[in-house]
Design a protein that fits this description.
CATH class of the largest domain: Alpha Beta
Largest sheet: 9 strands, mixed
Helix content: 25-40%
Low-confidence stretches: 158-170
Number of domains: 2
CATH superfamily of the largest domain: Alanine racemase
């Protein structure tokens, strides 16, 4: 299902014109398609229908309660990387038994909270972490279900800042160390080894890195089982790429065919942790044109959204397709423009030489594939109005998080008593 299409000359999310939403809530605003999220999850679920798997949505991609709830209602679990994300997943209605807790820096309080909730699994990334989990589980009189995150030393072939499975990356434990560490875990009080976990990166659009990593992980899983540790769960992470420009993402069917071929004859539980692939193309950012500016031989299209709202282009040189909300005629004359925001940083640029109609002040545009790592990475930098978030489902929409004006952004700040005197 395509989340955003032109209908009657206007760009719409499902059956709701984006202009209608922008007029109601203002800009900038994020808009998410519930139908597109459900359809993408359903494609993975159908591909594994003959070998059931739990898809735990990676909450870090978009932690809106309404987004988590939409996917949970469609059968997803949750992959979390902090105690706060566990709290969000619980608040969205997920049962603890469908929540995985990952991350390399779990605090004692977070571990204690996760165990008290009875979550499905803690993904362990080091021996010191394992020992802390053991001590806390004993303190609580429980046993912690754990899976070691294995670093398979596989280059995912993606951006260096989102690669996580190479030996020089900070994530996981070395592949060669795993058998001894599983033996150690099996002997520790308060620890129940239940699975093996790996995750090699994000925005991967080739099947080969997955297959290479999975072969190594499955062989290790077999070795540890044969050594007497009764593992029952293989957590193969996520990282499935999406279309931002001209990428060709791996289809759910092709991915499932590869995985099931590698797992033939094995009896185990399967877990995957998709994030971006479920929400990126289901979301867009709507912004309004402030004005056009020509300087130094360049034409700038200046918007009311900046890197405070969508930082990916500044952070990763990420590409987002930009479409005007009013559909240009088939023969429309397009001009190259630098699409920029209002933030006082030279890096506040969404794209150079984007071919667009000569938009005027008040016209609106949409940045596509912005449902992942958009709103969750936003900040209050420059104290500008934050972006509202809106969920669309068919012909209805609701504000799921209102924009925060500057006064609300500093409402919790305190001026100390010695500065209380009025400034003259």
């Amino acid at each position: 299902m395509k989340a955003f299409t032109y209908a009657a000359g206007r760009l719409a999310c499902e059956a709701v014109p984006l202009d209608t939403i922008a007029a109601a809530v203002g800009t900038p605003c994020y808009v998410y398609s519930a139908g597109a999220m459900r359809a993408q999850l359903a494609a993975y679920q159908a591909a594994f229908a003959d070998r059931p798997a739990l898809f735990c949505y990676a909450v870090k991609a978009n932690s809106s309660l309404a987004v988590i709830r939409t996917l949970a209602a469609a059968g997803a679990g949750a992959d979390t990387v902090s105690g706060g994300e566990i709290e969000r997943a619980l608040a969205a209605g997920l049962p603890p038994a469908k929540i995985v807790f990952a991350g390399i820096a779990k605090t004692d309080d977070e571990i204690r909270f996760a165990l008290a909730q009875g979550i499905m699994q803690l993904n362990v990334e080091s021996v010191p972490e394992l020992l802390r989990i053991s001590a806390i589980a004993c303190e609580l009189g429980t046993s912690a279900p754990v899976a070691f995150r294995i670093n398979p030393d596989v280059d995912a072939g993606t951006h260096s800042k989102i690669s996580t499975g190479r030996k020089e990356d900070k994530f996981g434990i070395a592949h060669a160390d795993a058998p001894a560490l599983y033996g150690m875990a099996a002997s520790l009080p308060g620890i129940t080894p239940v699975g093996l976990h790996l995750h090699i990166g994000s925005q991967i659009t080739s099947i080969e890195p997955f297959e290479q990593a999975y072969r190594r992980g499955i062989a290790l899983f077999d070795e540890i089982r044969a050594g007497g540790v009764p593992l029952r769960r293989l957590d193969l992470g996520g990282g499935f790429g999406v279309r931002y420009r001209n990428e060709q993402p791996i289809t759910a069917t092709a991915f499932a065919r590869m995985v099931k071929g590698l797992l033939a004859g094995r009896d185990l539980e399967l877990v995957f942790e998709p994030g971006r692939t479920l929400v990126a193309e289901a979301g867009c950012l709507v912004a309004s044109v402030i004005f056009r500016k020509e300087s130094g031989g360049r034409r700038f299209l200046i918007l009311d959204a900046g890197m405070n709202v969508l930082i990916r282009p500044a952070l990763y040189d990420a590409y987002h397709e930009v479409l005007p909300l009013a559909e240009p005629p088939a023969n429309a004359h397009l001009e190259p423009m630098d699409v920029v925001g209002p933030i006082c940083e030279s890096s506040d640029i969404f794209g150079r030489d984007r071919y667009l109609p000569l938009l005027e002040s008040g016209d609106r545009v949409a940045f596509l594939s912005a449902g992942a790592y958009g709103a969750v990475m936003a900040s209050d930098y420059n104290s500008r109005m934050s972006a509202a978030e809106v969920l669309v489902d068919g012909d209805r929409f609701a504000v799921i998080k209102p924009g925060r004006p500057p006064r609300a952004q500093f409402a919790d700040e305190v001026i100390p008593p010695w500065l209380a005197a009025e400034v003259s």
